[in-house]
Amino acid sequence: MLEALQIVLITAGRGQLKRRGAKPQIVEAGMAFILLPKVWHRYRPDSETGWTESWLEAQGPVADGLLAKAVFAPDEVLRVGALAAGLDIALESAHALARLAGPAFDPGLAARTFGVLAA
């Protein structure tokens, strides 16, 4: 279980996502999934293909508001078409800035996180 919202993108390979009370779901390249706070889960790449993943953690008032409004429904955490939505570009942009950012709040990084959430 995690304390904050996580967005995970799989860009290559495949694997499996399992959440408490739900059947295991197959995750393939180009798909993303959302890990909701305080929800038990586990995920893993397929032993034959492995996978490449990219992720971002979002916390704060915007993420809390999205969760309160059930924008990320617990039974719809797997997203197909994440690459077509530009999630890979949004994540890379956030990661590039995060590598340069210091430990303090960075408004640019917050804005890029909004882009990830939008994608």
Q: Could you give the count of β-strands?
A: 6
Secondary-structure content class: alpha+beta
Q: C-alpha Rg, in Å?
A: 14 Å
Residue fraction in strands: 25-35%
General shape: globular
How helix-rich are the residues, as a percent range? Answer: 25-40%
Could you give the order of the helices and strands? EEEEEHEHH
Question: How does this structure look, described?
Answer:
It is a single chain. By secondary structure, the protein is of the alpha+beta class. The chain has a domain of 81 residues. Helices cover 29% and strands 32% of the residues. Strands 1, 2, 3, 4, 5 and 6 form a 6-stranded antiparallel β-sheet that branches. Strand 1 and strand 2 form a beta hairpin. The chain starts with a strand and ends with a helix.
What's a concise summary of this model?
The protein is α+β, with helices and mostly antiparallel strands and 119 residues long.
Which key phrases capture this entry?
119 residues, alpha+beta, globular
Topology:
Blueprint: E1 5-19, E2 25-28, E3 32-35, E4 41-45, E5 51-58, H1 61-68, E6 78-79, H2 87-100, H3 107-118
Antiparallel strand pairs: 1-2, 1-3, 1-4, 1-5, 3-6
Helix pairs in contact: 2-3
